[in-house]
Structure formats: structure tokens, C-alpha cells
Specification:
The structure holds 2 protein chains of 2 kinds.
Chain A lengths: L16 E6 L2 E7 L8 E5 L5 E6 L5 E5 L14 E5 L2 E5 L6 E3 L15 E2 L1 E4 L4
Antiparallel strand pairs in A: 1-2, 1-10, 3-4, 4-5, 5-9, 6-7, 7-8
Chain B lengths: L14 E5 L3 H12 L2 H4 L1 E6 L13 H4 L14 H4 L2 E5 L3 E5 L4 E4 L4 E3 L2 E4 L3 E3 L12 E3 L3 H11 L4 E5 L3 H12 L3 E6 L11 H13 L2 E5 L3 E6 L5 E6 L4 E3 L2 E4 L3 E3 L2 H5 L10 E2 L11 E3 L4 E2 L9 H16 L12 E5 L2 E7 L9 E7 L4 E7 L5 E7 L5 H7 L8 H5 L20 E3 L4 E2 H9 L6 H8 L9 H14 L16 H11 L4 H8 L13 H16 L10 H4 L2 H5 L2 E2 L5 E3 L10 H14 L2 E4 L5 E6 L4 H10 L12 E6 L13 H12 L8 E6 L13 E6 L2 E6 L11 E7 L1 H18 L6 H7 L3 H9 L7 H14 L3 H6 L2 H4 L18 E4 L2 E4 L13
Parallel strand pairs in B: 1-2, 1-7, 2-3, 7-19, 9-16, 10-11, 10-16, 11-12, 18-20, 32-33, 33-34
Antiparallel strand pairs in B: 4-5, 5-6, 8-17, 13-14, 14-15, 21-22, 22-25, 23-24, 24-25, 26-27, 28-29, 29-31, 30-31, 34-35, 35-36, 37-38
Classes of the chains: A mainly beta, B alpha/beta.
The structure holds flavin-adenine dinucleotide and iron/sulfur cluster.
The site of flavin-adenine dinucleotide has 35 residues of chain B, from helix 1, strand 2, helix 6, helix 9 and strand 21.
Chain lengths: ~130, ~850
């Protein structure tokens, strides 16, 4: 399962509605213009959970759980993105553990992972 | 097999009694424990002082660095209990009976011994001058002496020290630290007559006088003048003059405390000291003597810790049944007295037949260096005053022929000296850490055989550098050299994305006028890293460089604009400090710590209205905790309206410039420290740097603002300002170094401009000024050359860069609340901006809030 949507167009040209898939189906979260390459935003899911959405430099979208499992705080969306061996990750702003954006796995502790969600951009309806 | 419990006290029939729990006594106990002797024998310690062993050498740090008596302790927590040692504090031995092998203490306690070790140290010698027992006469050896001096000094304004040797200058430092007008009276024609020669004495005198201590040499103390109230009023000198003074500290040498040994018939030397052999045994094989009370087999009494420690090791080894001997030690010393570095080693006075001197003397900067060289070129010893950088290399070279000509070893770097001799030139036998007797070979071995890869590893493994610390720098150089030689590539690159150091990236950004991270990464990143997202190390580091140079390279000044926004650490991104539960804290700027009642009330009202936890910070500001991200703009709108600005507590930037009230209110103040602190804080506010920057300004030498623990600290003098740099508090405290003295307001600001810009230019990410100053080649002297003497010709540029920063400063929060685009970021959820984050929860404590403790579930199930 991959949680990314490849978009060949440059990040700034992203247009449309960002959607994320939960158990209940696709959920519209925000418009693509609200995302800043290299940073994230938090989204509240219908079941009360939180997701963190990110856009990387090359225009790929990702969504993982927002709650940092090491501190219990909803902060992963506030972390910095990075790349290591072709994997894009977010570093938690609290204790700096890194989470793979593609699958939510913690790169610094094999036993820990956060949820990951498929994401897509639905072109804006004219 | 019968299991004998080695630790059971009852089975330990052999008893060792230690009399005296000073520096050497404690070292002896550690050596016994290291050899497992404490497992086999009962150890009883009689300690005269009311507290266990402490670091006498750093006594003066009580005054100069605010160390508490507990900070000075040398006994690790739980040491005595762990090794089953019985310590009797405040109960000195009063008699030894060698017939019955017992020691009697003042309390009446009598202990039988199999082995007795005397480590009773010395007592200060007080010359028999009239008036010596008056109120206000002190000696300087124990913490109790120090507390008594401190208490008495409250009521006087001046003090005189009798004796200008090592201890006298230490005592003078203490009196200066107490803010007294201080005099030193030395009978010999120069200061520290034992350690330094005439030239060194002159350099030392100039530096000491520069620190406000008046030096009288070549005169003796004839009488202490006593007032009608029985208190010291002055001192009559041998030249007929009278020195008015409120108190006197005698520091005219020490004498071994050998009375216990004398009284029980053990031989003592003509001028004191318990006679011992090479194993530190007295004439009675059951009795040892170590440290300052012993007269070693070479006929000398050693008044320094390092030889005392060697004696302690020797005695412990002998008692454990191992081989060991102490045949004498080298009297090398490296000291910082009153902020002046002094070192002497080997045959410092050139007493060897046919030896020659090589000298360098620079009266202007107070530097004096002399090497004593044998006729065959062997380095025999030397004296260094003012700049002792080379001590770490020269002392271990003593006794060998240095690989370069001696004149090159005394010339300052750059003054025709073709080489600076590194520690790699030393032979393996060279002792690098003299306190713990660790050779270069042992340090190399720690790296090659014990897999140590850092200075802390090597310290732990060999004990090198764990006492006085003067060898740590050389240690670092050796570790790096050894790792490199072992093929361990010491990659100096910033991170997996950049092969350059931060300083190199700074130069690239400045020279090529690069204004974005992407441009820098794609053109100058490592091969495979170009086009990637970088990482959490290089992004903030480059963001900081771009922010420092924004006005010059044409990058946006606001850290939340465009690409910059994606580079900032989370704290910078939200212009607040994220706390453990994901809430943020807010620190408005309060320049110099000065605040009007109206503004204080505003802070109180904001905190009350938003339910924030408030705490006064160490930097003379107020921290408001517990704000949710969506509350930040609302809170700041109120604060900005009341005239507050961002305090940059979230940034690697200038934090605060603390101040004492200074001349305006304080009876001791000599300058307006508050005004200067405000001026400096306003000048450098918003300046992004490799790490946070802290500062303080004190109104006089009493130093109430603790400027010497800051990155740049300013202390008022009667003639202007002294500038100290590279200080640090926190986990690795460091006393700041004096960069320049008696500066006018304008000179001070100009020098700080240069210093800060040079630091920003050359430091590594997250490297505080204290670490930077110790790391960069040439250290403080190099920095002084660059920023004071403009040796690199870059001062104009440094000043221009700072001028651009000052002109371009804008308050980040005012700009943010006026910009809808930037404000749009401050929401809890992008799809539910009005719903507070449910993970941010608080519970009450002591009338305020605190984060609710969180139970962690480490794995969330993967949905979808
Ligand atoms: C201000 C100052 C600065 C110094 N700076 C330096 C320096 O920079 N470098 C350096 O190498 N050295 C320095 N020294 C010297 C150094 O402190 C001594 O060399 C060292 O402390 C000697 O250790 P010691 O254990 O032999 O004696 P001490 O540390 O003096 O300990 C002896 C202890 O024995 C106790 N005692 C005495 N008689 C009895 C008894 N009958 N029963 C029980 N206990 C008894 C004493 O109370 C004392 O606590 C300095 C000393 C002072 C005072
Ligand atoms: S408050 Fe300032 S001026 Fe007063 S004694 Fe302390 S440092 Fe000196």
C-alpha cells in the first residue's frame, strides 16, 4: 500500500481539494493551496483522531497520524521534513524521532509506528 | 565451596585508619577502592573539618563563580556507603599510640589500626607581627576561612593580603570578588617569586594591577595597626609607609601539620614534614604519610595537588601489595590567578649547569614566555605568563629535544613562527594529564584499543582531563588525530546533505549572494542530496545563515516568508516555544529586565484572560505557558497593542541582556548598567545566530548581573566597560574571558558588533560561544586579533553586516498579526480551525495550570 500520490507538476501548481481516505471513505480536508512545501497541517478526522498532511519539495502528498506516540501530543504536523536514502520523513518537534511519511514507521525505533492514510487531490470543479 | 562475603564488615579484621580528609586523603580512599582494598579491610577516616573533602584548589571559585560549598565537594554521592568507609566528620585525631596501635580522636573515640595513614596537610604560616590576632585578620585555607572573610568583608571597603605567591594572589582574587579595594604586599621583589622570574613577575604585575589590585613588592609587613575597637585599621610597612586597610589576609606560606607524628616519636624534617621513604612509609612500617604533611624521599615537601595525588596512589598501591613508588615530582603548574594565566614547568629558573634562556616579552599585552634549554638543545623548563596556550605541549616535551628550534616555540603565532607545534609531535611517553599521570600513549590506546571516539569517552576510560582540565584541549586534538590516523573518517560536514561546515556554507552564501535554501542545496549540496527535502539539521542551520545575512544577500527579512517558513524549526515557525503537550509558551521582550507597572499589569491581565501559567525566567523576563496554537495571534495582538515585542525565546537568536540596577540606585555602581543593557538588547534583538545568545551588564565588579556567565558580558569599571566573552551557564558552565578593558560606550558596541558577527560567521550549528571559542584555532587570542586588532582586515565588513541587521530589524509578531497570510498558519486543524486540539489538556496545580499527564499508547493501528 502506498500512501502517496505522484504529481509531476511542481508543487506550487497544485490545484484542487486534498482528500484523505479513512475507514469511511474519502474525506475532503483542505484546498491544495493551503499546503506549503516542506511543512504540514493537522486535520481532524470524524472519529476524533488527527492526521498530519504534508507536501514535499517534489509535490508529493502524504498523510500520517498527527499524535506523536512518544509524547502523546498532536504535534507531528508541526515537524520539519527531511530526506534520508530516498525516504521522506518528518522529525517530531518534541523529541526529534523521525517518522517515514510513506508508511508511518518510526525510523529511530522499529517497534513504533503511527497510522498512515492514502491521500489524493481532486481537481477543482469549474 | 564456602562463599565468603567479601563485603561483610565483620570479616574485615584488618583496619586502615586515615587521619585527615583533604584532597589527598580522598584521593587515597579512591585509590584503595579502585584496588578493592575497601572490600577486604575496615577503613576509618578522622576528618577535622566540619565537612568531607572538598576542592581546595578551587576555593576562590566560591567568590568568582558563585560556587557553593557543596559544589566544591570532592566526594561523589554515596561513595562512603558504597565502600563501607566509616567517616567521622568534625572529629580530629589528637593522639597516636604506636605501642598499642591506636588513634584517639577529640570525641574520645579510640580506633585500633593495622595501618595508619596521615594526610593532615598544612597550616597557613602567620608571621609573628604585632597585631596579627586582631579582629579582621584571617588566613585562607578552608571553607570556614572563606565564610569568615566573606562575613567580615561586608563591613569594610578595603583589604590587604600579606604574601604575593600563588595563595596570596588567590586570596587577592577573593577580596576583589568581594568588591574590596585590594592590596597585595610581597616581601620579594616580584610576585610569585617561586614560580616566575623577574620578567614573568613584571608581566604578571601589570596584568594584576590592570584588574584593580594594588601591588607592593619589596616591602615587608611590620605591624598590623589596630583601632580602639580592636579591629584592624591598617598595616605598617617596612618602608615606613602605612597602608590603611579594613582587613588582612595572611598568605605567607604554609607549614606541614606534622605534630601528631612528632608527638608519637616519628622523625620529621628540620623545617617540618613527616619523613617518608619512596613508598610514603614513615620510619614505622605501619604508618604512612602523604600529601602536604609529608617530607618526600627527595627531601622536599610538595605544596601542590598533583604530587600529593601521586603519593596517595603510591601508599594505596603499597598497602594493596602492589609495587609503587614516589621519588619526587615536577613542580609544573598552570594557574589562572585573578584571570591571568601563569604556568611554570621543569627547571623554570634555569639552575641546570650551562643552560640557556630563550625569552619573548610583550609588555603591552602582558605576555611573557621563557624557555630554559640545555646545551644540547634539551628543553629543561619554562615560564609562561599571560598566554599559556603552549603549556599543554611544552610541559610533556620537557626532557627531550623539541622538533623545532626553541625561539619558534616562544614567538606568537604569525610573528615569524613557521610552525605551531601540535600534540602529535609528542612522544608516547609524554605525560598529557599530569594530575592523573596519563601519557599520550595511554590516550592513543584508549582510542585504538578501547574504541573511544570522543573526549568524554577517553576521559572516562583513562581519567585524563578529569581533574584540573588544563589538558582537555590537547586531549581533543589527540583523539581527532588518532581517529583520523585509524582511517576513521572524521566527516566534518554539516549533515548527510552538505559536506561543508556551517562556516563554509556561510562564506558561500555571503560570497555568492545566495538567498534561498533550495538554491544552496541544489548547487552546493552533496551529490545525492540535491533536489531532496534536506533534513532537520541543515534546514534550520541554513535558515539561520539566511536570516543573519538577509539584509545583505536579499533574502526576506521575515522568518515566516516564502520558502523560509518551511525551513524554520517548529518554534521559529510558530514564533513561540513548543512545550511537552504541544502547547506553546510566550516570552515578550523586556529589555534589560526593566518594566513599568502598566506593562506588568498587561502581562498579568493577558495571562489571566487566557488562563496561562506564568513564571519568572532566569533572564529577567516573564514566560507565559499553555497557549494553544490558535490563541497565539490573539495573545500577541494584546501584547503588541501594549507595546511589547517578540522576545525571540523561540529562536537561535539574542535572548536577553540582563542587568543589575547599577549606578542609578546601587551605592556601589560606577556606571548605568540598566541603560547599557537596554541599548544592547535593542541593538541586537532579532539577530539570528548559530545558537542562542545571552548577555548581561553589571554596574560594578561585584557582578550582580552575572555577566561572566554570558556569551557576551559587560562589567562597569571606573573608566568605562570591560567586555567578557564566551561565558556559559547551563550544563557545562564556563567563565567568560576578558576580551578588552575600559571601553567607552561606542568602543564597546563596536567591539560587540564585530565579535558577534565573527561568531555568526564561523561557528557550527548549535555551538555556543563558549564552545566555539575553545574550538577555533588560536582560541581567544585569535578572536582578539581578529576583532580588536583587525588581523584579517574584515572588521569593516563585520560592522557593515551588523549595521544592516540593525537597520533591517522588524518585530516579527507585529508583522505577523498584520498579515492574514501568515496568520492563516495559526490554526489547530486545517479543516476545523475553531476546534481546539483535544490532546492539549491541563490540570490545576498551585493555583495555576499544568499539562495533564499523558498515558502513552506507543502504536496506533494502521487504518485504511
Ligand atoms: C586557596 C588555595 C589555592 C590552591 N591552588 C592550588 C593550585 O592551583 N594548584 C595546586 O596544585 N595546589 C593548590 N593549592 C594547594 C592544594 O590545595 C594542596 O596541595 C592540597 O590541598 C593538599 O592536600 P592534602 O590532602 O595534603 O591537604 P589538605 O587538603 O589541606 O587536607 C588536610 C586535611 O587534614 C585535616 N587534618 C589536619 N590535622 C588533622 C587531624 N589531626 N585529624 C583529622 N584531620 C586533620 C585538615 O583539617 C584538612 O582537612 C591551593 C591551596 C589553597 C588553600
Ligand atoms: S547591583 Fe550592580 S552596581 Fe550594585 S553592587 Fe551589584 S554589580 Fe555593582
Amino acid at each position: 500500500m502506498t500512501a502517496t500520490t505522484d504529481l509531476s507538476s511542481p508543487a506550487t501548481a497544485l490545484r484542487g481539494t486534498v482528500e484523505l481516505r479513512t475507514a469511511d471513505g474519502w474525506l475532503a480536508v483542505c484546498s491544495a493551496e493551503e499546503l506549503l512545501p516542506g511543512r504540514g497541517v493537522a486535520a481532524l478526522l470524524p472519529d476524533g483522531r488527527q492526521a498530519a498532511l504534508f507536501l514535499d519539495r517534489s509535490g508529493r502528498l502524504y498523510a500520517i497520524g498527527n499524535v506523536d506516540p512518544f509524547t502523546g501530543a498532536g504535534v507531528l504536523s508541526h515537524g520539519l521534513l527531511g530526506t534520508v536514502q530516498d525516504r521522506t520523513y518528518v522529525a517530531s518537534p518534541l523529541l526529534k524521532q523521525r517518522f517515514d511519511l510513506a508508511d508511518g514507521r518510526c525510523l529511530d525505533d522499529d517497534t513504533v509506528a503511527v497510522a498512515s492514510y492514502p491521500v489524493r487531490v481532486e481537481p477543482a470543479r469549474a | 565451596m564456602a562463599v565468603t562475603t567479601a563485603t561483610s564488615r565483620n570479616t574485615r579484621d584488618n583496619t586502615i585508619v586515615l587521619v585527615g580528609h583533604g584532597m589527598v586523603g580522598q584521593r587515597f580512599l579512591e585509590a584503595l577502592a579502585d584496588r578493592g582494598v575497601t572490600e577486604r579491610a575496615r577503613v576509618v577516616v578522622l576528618c577535622e573539618e566540619p565537612r568531607p573533602a572538598y576542592d581546595r584548589v578551587h576555593l576562590t571559585s566560591y567568590f568568582s563563580e558563585g560556587a557553593s560549598p557543596e559544589d566544591l565537594s570532592m566526594v561523589e554521592d554515596g561513595f562512603m556507603a558504597r565502600h563501607g568507609i566509616e567517616l567521622h566528620v568534625g572529629d580530629p585525631a589528637v593522639a597516636v599510640d604506636r605501642e598499642s596501635c591506636t588513634v584517639t580522636a577529640r570525641s574520645g573515640l579510640t580506633v585500633g589500626y593495622d595501618t595508619l595513614v596521615l594526610a593532615t596537610g598544612s597550616y597557613p604560616f602567620v608571621p609573628p607581627v604585632p597585631g596579627k590576632d586582631a579582629d579582621g585578620c584571617f588566613v585562607y585555607r578552608t571553607i570556614e576561612d572563606l565564610l569568615a572573610i566573606e562575613a567580615y568583608a561586608q563591613g569594610v571597603s578595603s583589604g590587604a593580603v600579606v604574601g604575593g605567591g600563588l595563595l596570596g594572589l588567590e586570596a587577592a582574587g577573593a577580596l576583589r570578588g568581594l568588591g574590596l579595594d585590594t592590596h597585595v604586599v610581597e616581601f620579594a621583589p616580584r610576585l610569585m617569586p617561586v614560580q616566575v622570574d623577574e620578567g614573568g613577575g613584571q608581566a604578571l604585575r601589570r596584568s594584576v594591577e590592570g584588574l584593580g589590585v594594588t601591588v607592593h613588592t619589596g616591602v615587608g609587613t611590620q605591624e598590623i595597626a589596630v583601632g580602639d575597637d580592636g579591629r584592624v585599621s591598617g598595616m605598617a610597612l617596612s618602608d615606613g609607609s602605612v597602608l590603611p586597610t579594613g582587613m588582612v589576609v595572611f598568605s605567607a606560606g604554609v607549614r606541614p601539620r606534622d605534630d601528631l607524628a612528632r608527638d608519637c616519636g616519628l622523625p620529621v624534617g628540620e623545617r617540618g614534614g613527616i619523613v617518608v621513604d619512596e613508598q610514603c612509609r614513615t620510619q614505622d612500617p605501619a604508618v604512612f604519610a602523604i600529601g602536604e604533611c609529608a617530607l618526600a624521599s627527595d627531601g622536599r615537601v610538595y605544596g601542590l595537588v598533583a604530587p600529593g595525588n601521586e603519593m596517595a596512589e603510591t601508599a594505596a598501591r603499597t598497602i594493596a601489595g602492589d609495587a609503587g613508588s614516589f621519588t619526587g615530582a615536577d613542580l609544573s603548574t598552570k594557574l589562572k590567578l585573578l584571570g591571568v594565566d601563569v604556568a611554570s614547568f621543569g627547571d623554570a629558573h634555569g639552575t641546570t649547569d650551562g643552560c640557556l634562556d630563550v625569552r619573548y616579552s610583550d609588555a603591552r599585552s602582558g605576555i611573557y614566555r621563557k624557555l630554559v634549554v640545555g646545551s644540547d638543545g634539551t628543553l629543561l623548563g619554562g615560564i609562561l605568563v599571560g598566554d599559556v596556550e603552549s603549556y599543554g605541549v611544552l610541559r610533556p616535551l620537557t626532557g627531550s629535544v623539541p622538533p623545532v628550534a626553541p625561539e619558534h616555540l616562544v614567538l606568537p603565532a604569525g610573528a615569524g613562527a613557521p610552525v605551531t607545534l601540535g600534540p602529535t609531535a609528542l612522544p608516547d611517553e609524554a605525560v598529557i594529564c599530569s594530575c592523573n599521570n596519563v601519557t599520550k600513549g595511554a590516550i592513543r590506546g584508549a582510542v585504538t584499543d578501547h574504541d573511544c571516539t570522543s573526549v568524554p569517552d577517553v576521559k572516562k576510560c583513562t581519567k585524563a582531563g578529569s581533574s584540573c582540565g588544563s589538558c582537555v584541549k590537547v586531549l581533543g586534538q589527540l583523539v581527532t588525530a588518532e581517529l583520523e590516523a585509524g582511517g576513521v573518517e572524521v566527516d566534518k560536514g554539516l549533515c548527510p546533505h552538505f559536506a561543508q561546515t556551517r562556516a563554509e556554507l556561510y562564506e558561500i552564501v555571503l560570497a555568492l549572494r545566495i538567498s534561498s535554501y533550495r538554491e544552496l542545496l541544489d548547487a552546493h549540496g552533496r551529490e545525492g542530496a540535491r533536489g531532496t527535502d534536506g533534513c532537520e539539521v541543515c534546514k534550520p542551520a541554513v535558515a539561520s545563515i539566511l536570516a543573519s545575512l538577509a539584509a545583505t544577500v536579499g533574502a526576506s527579512v521575515h522568518v515566516l516568508d516564502g520558502e523560509q517558513a518551511a525551513l524554520q524549526d517548529t518554534n521559529d515557525h510558530f514564533l513561540a516555544n513548543m512545550q511537552k503537550n504541544g502547547s506553546y509558551s510566550i516570552v515578550p521582550r523586556i529589555p534589560g529586565g526593566e518594566i513599568t507597572p502598566e506593562r506588568l499589569i498587561v502581562i498579568g491581565e493577558v495571562a489571566r484572560d487566557f488562563g496561562l501559567y506564568t513564571k519568572i525566567t532566569g533572564g529577567q523576563r516573564i514566560d507565559l505557558f499553555g497557549a494553544r496554537v490558535e490563541q497565539l495571534p490573539l495573545i500577541w495582538t494584546r501584547l503588541v497593542d501594549a507595546g511589547f515585542e517578540s522576545g525571540h525565546a523561540y529562536g537561535k537568536a539574542l535572548r536577553t541582556v540582563k542587568s543589575c540596577v547599577g549606578q542609578t540606585w546601587c551605592r556601589y555602581g560606577v556606571q548605568d548598567s540598566v541603560r547599557m543593557a537596554i541599548d544592547l538588547e535593542l541593538r541586537y534583538r532579532g539577530l539570528r545566530s548559530p545558537h542562542k545568545l545571552k548577555s548581561a551588564v553589571s554596574g560594578c565588579a561585584r557582578e550582580c548581573a552575572e555577566a561572566q556567565s554570558k556569551d557576551f558580558g559587560v562589567i562597569a569599571t571606573a573608566n568605562g566597560w570591560n567586555l567578557y566573552v564566551g561565558g556559559n551557564g547551563g550544563a557545562t558552565p564556563r567563565h567568560a574571558d576578558l576580551l578588552a578593558q575600559d571601553l567607552s560606550d561606542a568602543e564597546l558596541v563596536r567591539l560587540i558588533d564585530r565579535f558577534l558577527m565573527f561568531y555568526i560567521r564561523t561557528a557550527e550549528p548549535l555551538e555556543r560561544t563558549s564552545v566555539w571559542l575553545q574550538r577555533i584555532a588560536g582560541g581567544l587570542d585569535h578572536v582578539r586579533d581578529v576583532v580588536v586588532h583587525d588581523s584579517l582586515g574584515i572588521c569593516d565588513e563585520l560592522e557593515a553586516l551588523m549595521a544592516a541587521h540593525v537597520a533591517g530589524y522588524r518585530d516579527e509578531w507585529a508583522d505577523t498579526i498584520n498579515d492574514p497570510e501568515r496568520l492563516s498558519r495559526f490554526v489547530s486543524f486545517v479543516n476545523a480551525p475553531d476546534t481546539p486540539d483535544p490532546t492539549v489538556r491541563f490540570v490545576p496545580e498551585r493555583g495555576q495550570i499544568k499539562p495533564e499527564p499523558i498515558l502513552l499508547a506507543l502504536t496506533e493501528t494502521v487504518t485504511a
